[in-house]
Design goal:
The chain is about 70% helix and about 0% strand. By secondary structure, it is an all-alpha fold. About 35% of the residues are buried.
Length: about 180
């Protein structure tokens, strides 16, 4: 089977339009909240807050030190993902598809891979490897954050899949 970039992009566009037809006001609001929760600022805010609390002996998350260690995986994944984006230079769906608008303000950087999918997946896999009790909840959040990028029109399905694969590989290499 020939999986040329043109074929992948054609499938991506069909999936994007199919998902866009399922949009509702409630789901849009919910997935905007989810996507914003996976922004870099949120990651750094959580990491800094938990580190400060941890230094004072305050535990707000079960096995907080393990949780903090797991945050290394999304950081490394994010950095590697930025390099991969520069290499692939793939345009975002709204830049590629005529008359298609995203539902959130999107960065103008490249699309492949999705760093939301990559970093949340890396965190999830790291928590699984480290046997942290919050791993299932983080897995659910990761799946929702990844899907939100497709639903909101800022990433193609293949960007999400590439990001997910990157996240798994990085977490496995780190831990």
């Amino acid at each position: 089977m020939d999986f040329s970039l043109k074929k992948i992009t054609a499938i991506d566009c069909k999936v994007m339009l199919l998902v866009a037809r399922q949009r509702t006001n409630f789901l849009t609001l919910f997935l905007k909240l989810v996507t914003y929760s996976a922004l870099g600022r949120a990651w750094f805010g959580v990491a800094i807050t938990l580190n400060l609390l941890d230094q004072r002996g305050i535990q707000v998350v079960k096995d907080q030190t393990i949780f903090l260690n797991a945050l290394l995986a999304p950081l490394a994944t994010w950095l590697l993902g930025l390099i991969i984006k520069i290499y692939f230079k793939r345009r975002r769906p709204f830049q590629f598809m005529p008359n298609f608008s995203p539902l959130v303000k999107s960065p103008i950087d490249d699309s492949f891979p999705s760093l939301h999918a990559a970093s949340t997946t890396a965190f999830f896999v790291a928590l699984i490897i480290l046997n942290h009790p919050l791993a299932p909840w983080v897995g659910l959040w990761s799946a929702l954050a990844s899907f939100s990028r497709l639903y909101l029109g800022v990433h193609f399905l293949s960007d999400i899949l590439g990001g997910t694969l990157l996240g798994v590989l990085c977490a496995r290499l780190i831990f």
